[in-house]
């Protein structure tokens, strides 16, 4: 379901919007928000509710790991997009689960006409790191 009205979206964003994502704002087009579901530094499995304003998406990026690692997205409110480099985009709706293996260049974010939220789980692994790449161009995004 699509939500342009933030107050209506807040009713279905079960895990809460959280705070403006200032630490990673440089890697997002438009506004995103983070709500940690587990206190940072208290678990080997970080989990955040990530909320995207309409049209918001993150840059292409890669979750590196020498073993295991990657990221899991559990979509629960609004609608969004996920795309791996060289593949067709995937429409994200509540209940969609995306398993992103390490070393896969990808991006994710809201559709242009709705708020969107997913839980992001950083899968534990060895020698993990994130590499932020170029922004998703308006040309690519607006063609969806």
UniProtKB/TrEMBL annotation:
Transmembrane segments: none annotated. Pfam families: Cupin_2. Residues 50-112 form the Cupin type-2 domain. InterPro entries: Cupin_2, HNL-like_cupin, RmlC-like_jellyroll, RmlC_Cupin_sf. Gene3D superfamilies: Jelly Rolls. SUPFAM superfamilies: RmlC-like cupins. PANTHER family: BLL4564 PROTEIN (PTHR43698:SF1), RIBD C-TERMINAL DOMAIN CONTAINING PROTEIN (PTHR43698). This is Cupin domain-containing protein.
